Structures are given as structure tokens and as C-alpha cells.
Here is the input.
Amino acid sequence: MCGIFGIRDNADAARITHLGLYSLQHRGQESAGIVAVSANGEAQMVRKMGLVSDGFEEDRIASLHGPIAIGHTRYSTAGTSTIDNAQPVFVRFRGGHIALAHNGNLTNAVALRGALEAEGSIFASTMDSEVIVHRIAKSRAAKPEEQLAEALRGAEGAYSLLVVIGTTLLAARDPNGFRPLTMGRLGDSWVFASETCALDIVGATIVRDVAPGEIIAVDAEGMRTLQFPAAPTLHRCVFEYIYFARPDSRIFGASVDRARRALGRQLALEQPAPSADLVFAVPDSSNAAALGYAEASGLRLEHALIRNHYVGRTFIQPTQEGRDAKVKVKYNAVREVLEGKSVVMVDDSIVRGTTTRGLVALLRGAGAREVHMRVSSPPITGPCYYGIDTPERAELIAANMSIDEVGRAIGVDSLGYLSIEGMLASVPGGPSGFCHACFSGQYPTQPPVDIKRYRSVV
Ligand code: AMP
Here is the structure.
């Protein structure tokens, strides 16, 4: 998963992009990058492994000149975490440059890349995003938006994109609308960001979402839009509401906080825990869902787990041993809240079960008498091919065990998940218009055929 930010017509473009990336850090912590472009098309790039906060020195940002900039925070699957795969992708092209920042994954990346390689294309990274850049470069269309449109014809899967071709800033969203992308205004500047929290930090106001299937071009001639037919049904990622986006953002036109609270309330109705004394969240991603659960159940909301904010999301560790150790580094339990109590722990999802198992052990160690786990999403039974880094089925605990078995494996007294129907009834604009493939197995586009090869090029 990734975060993208872009701005045009601002003398401080790179610095504002840097600021915007701070608010998109949760969408990717492995690498970050910014490309800035001057009014006459000269471009410069900085890319670093690691966090935005320790990624860039002030003087390097100050050296990025020009009124146009795009930035990216990246979160990749294990094995592809290298500087070559940091974004924006940046290449020289017909005397100018192309820079591209991508959130999402192309499901037919293997075929697209194979076709380009057969014609002699050479790749500098293993990313599907580089495929789009090659296809832009091959286009003979006159206008940048037409070049991007040609490049995207035949691309399947998920893409929210920010691209600079020459001095034109382009924003695009796939016809299914899998990933969010919002447009805002900051004085005379146009701003684009994965989430509205990145507009807030730079002081921009929300204008609207980039529409599914839309390409927006902004340059010296002003703004133009080009609309592809949107898919008959949208497939916006429901997991953005459940886990990924920040609760202070509005995505897909609605508040993430309100969506999470509604999920929590519905969870309380479907999966009550009548014998419990209190409820608490696994901070921070399930805070709003636990609030909703407390509201609907009447249980007292407590802070029973304290999260160390200096440790990143646990999945960042590519090996299982690393992940296990990190649970304890990341969380501790509050004995004064838990001792002798029957408790409800609300989390937004269970993926491998690693974090959860570790947390339950912490709660028991701090004296909890009964642990009832409630999950504000349904069991995850399949991988995501549209940009969320859920592992393959073999590693997904609920794909391989019944709910009772999962409960025993993680060591809880009871386990209750939200139903698919309950989830879709709770998210704004539901029940249709969402991708829920990771829960339902209903993939809106053909999943990749050769998974191993696919994993090696995304
Ligand atoms: P686990 O117990 O190992 O299944 O991990 C579940 C935790 O991971 C939950 O607290 C989720 O908030 C979090 N989570 C869910 N999906 C992801 C993801 N794609 N990347 C990182 N963390 C995730």
C-alpha cells in the first residue's frame, strides 16, 4: 500500500509535498520520495528508505526547485523493499522527464511487463508501476493526458496515480475506484492526495474526489479532464474504511471515523459479550470501532493496551520471528484495568493471528480473567491483489481454520467477527460499490494467474 501527494502552481511545491507525506506515513513506511519540476521542465528527485521524518534532510528538500512536485510513501511486500523500488518512478524521456507515483497494484502486471520485455524494454525495478511509465513513453499521442490514457488502456486492477509528464501534472484513478484520491485547492495551487488528512496538514480545502476512470491534467493551459467509462459497479476498497485510512480523513466522500464507529456499533449488535465488564481497543487503528462497540453495548470503554508510538506497523518485519518480538515492543497491558476482569478486546482485523496471539498473552499476564475478542471486519480468507499487502492464503489464519479453531489458536475465551452483510450495511454508501474480495473471495477483476511471478513484479 502507498500514499501519494502532488501539487502544481506553488513556489514551495517540494516543501509542501514533504509536509503532505507526513500525513500519509501510515500508508507506507519503507521508503519515501519526492520529485520536483521547474516551470521549464527541469526535474530533480530525492528518494530514501525509511520514514519521511528521517528520510530527508532540510537542505535536500530546499534544493528541490519548481512549482510542481509529487511525492510517495511506499509499503511493499517482503523481499521487494529496496531503493530501486522506491517511488516516484523517475525517468528521462524525449528531452524531458516522466515522474510517477502509484497506489495500488495491476493484476495483469506480468502480462504487461512480458509484452514490453518481448519488445526489448529494460526495467530498473521490479514494480508494476514502471510498466505504466514504459507505456507512456511508447505513446505517440499529442497531449500528456492522452499519453497516460493510452498507457492505462488494458491495465487491469488498482491504480490511483500522480504523474508529471513535462510540466503537466496528471491525476488518475482506475475505473473501479479501488483506491482513494482527492483533489484540493491551496490558494491558486491544485493539490492531490490519497487522503484528506494530507490536505489538512498543508492547509488546503477539499474540492472533490478524482472520479473512478477519470484523468485530470493541470498545466499552464489550466485544468482538463478526460473520463473513461467507470465500471458498471464501483469496487472501492472496504478495507480502507476498516483499517487502512486515517480516521481524520474523508475517503470516497465520507468520514473514516464515522464508518469505523458504525462498524463497531454493528459488531456490538451482532456479537455481544454480555458477561464482560469493559471494552477496549487495540490502538490505534481500532479506537473508533471500540468506541462504537462501547456506545452500542453500554460497556465502559477503557485503555487497557498502551502502544509504543516509536515502533511501526508490525507487518513491516519480513520474518515471522521479527514480527513476534515486535508485538511486545509495540504494546503493553495495563494491569490496573485488567486484573480480575472479563474484557472485550476490539480489533479491526485478524490477518496472520500473530499480533493477536501475542496480545492475548499480554492480557492474561496482566490478570485478565476472561478475554472476548471482537473483530470489526469478517474473517480474511483471501489475499488482496489491489494494493493491500495481505499474505497468501497459507498464511491467513482464517483461511485455514474455522472460527472456533482461530479462537483456540489465539487463546481467547470467545471470538466474534462482523458479518459481510453487517460490514457492508455499516460503511457509507454501502452495501454495493465496494471490493470485499479478501473476505468474500469475489475478485472484481481476474486475479493474477501465476501468483509467484506476480509477487515478483509488484
Ligand atoms: P495479526 O494478529 O498478526 O493477524 O495482525 C492483526 C493486526 O494487523 C490488526 O491489529 C490489524 O490492525 C493489523 N493489520 C491488518 N491488516 C494489515 C496490513 N495489511 N498491514 C499491516 N497491518 C495490518
In short: Residues 9 and 189 are 5 Å apart (CA to CA).
